[in-house]
Amino acid sequence: MKITEEKLQEQELKAKFQDASQLGFGRIFTDRMFTMRYANNEWTEAKIEKYKNFTLDPSACVFHYSQEIFEGMKAYAAEDGRILLFRPEQNVRRMNNSAARLVMPTIPEEDMLQAIEELVLAEKNWIPRAAGTSMYIRPTMIATEAFLGVHPSAEYTFFVILSPVGAYYKGGFQPVKLYVEDTFVRAAVGGVGDIKTGGNYAASLMAGYRAQQKGFSQVLWLDAKERKYVEEVGAMNMFFVYGNKLVTPALSGSILPGITRASVLELAKHLGLTAEERTISIDEVIEDIATGAITEAFGSGTAAVISPVGSLTFKEKEYVINNNQVGPNTQHLYDTLVNIQYGRQEDPFGWVKEI
Ligand code: PLP
Ligand code: COI
Fold first, then answer.
1. Any idea which residues bear N6-(pyridoxal phosphate)lysine here (predicted)?
2. What pTM, to 2 d.p., does this model score?
């Protein structure tokens, strides 16, 4: 949906901005975008321009060999009017790691950050203010050179688009049901599962679609080699809570190193919880749910924030966690994280950047 700023004045749309559940995720885009081209070994033509379609040659590399990377971050409107980003330097760094893995040009970190900040400031009137809303930022790089041979493109476009968003999941902060996928795999060690590239999400669609048809929110992926170890969820990293201890799968090489994940690990320690990164098998998880050793579970991500997990279904059997209720540690971590992100609580970590 493309809505202009004039239209934004309309009552109906204004109402949407007051209600996180109405706003949904990633359907509304702001009036302007940042674009920059790469050719002859340099980035040129950096500009903020009207949000518009691209004209690309049908043989552009991105269409055929998916040489594409992206990031996901958010701008938050604080109650006192400040506009805050959350650890944006981490996204910029991860974008460059993704670029390097796909033989794409990197962008000086400070230039990428400046582009993002200038665009967000130019579009600041679009940042929604209702509870649970924010402005999702999507930096993206695509290979634009026209050819059909398999080799890295010599030309690229980097762009940033903005989308005012509410909750990622329809139910908002409600426990989600996950389907443990034991047939298809998302990514294998040595592949590109640890970077943000479209192909990982394309590979996930079939399993995600089937799970959704059966009423699940997302798939919980297992490792590609043995289908034995828990990896991550479609758009978030996974945490299991054992009383006052958090356990999250170690970064195996095929899991995205989530910035929210890293933040939750630090936050947990700050809140007096212990946190472990280790391999954890699905058999161990279901046994620990059945015996009650796992007291809570949740996923973490920029879009998903902290999403409580109410049950896992593995080989046709559902394992319910904490009676399908939001657990106390999940709630505490969620409250603390969002209070820091929205500038409602002191940020002892220096994570929040006012722009
Ligand atoms: N895992 C996948 C596959 C994701 O797409 C995301 C979202 O970015 C995450 C994990 C969480 O990462 P982050 O916390 O950096 O948003
Ligand atoms: C994010 O949380 O930023 C993501 O990239 C998830 C997404 C694929 C919607």
1. 196
2. 0.94
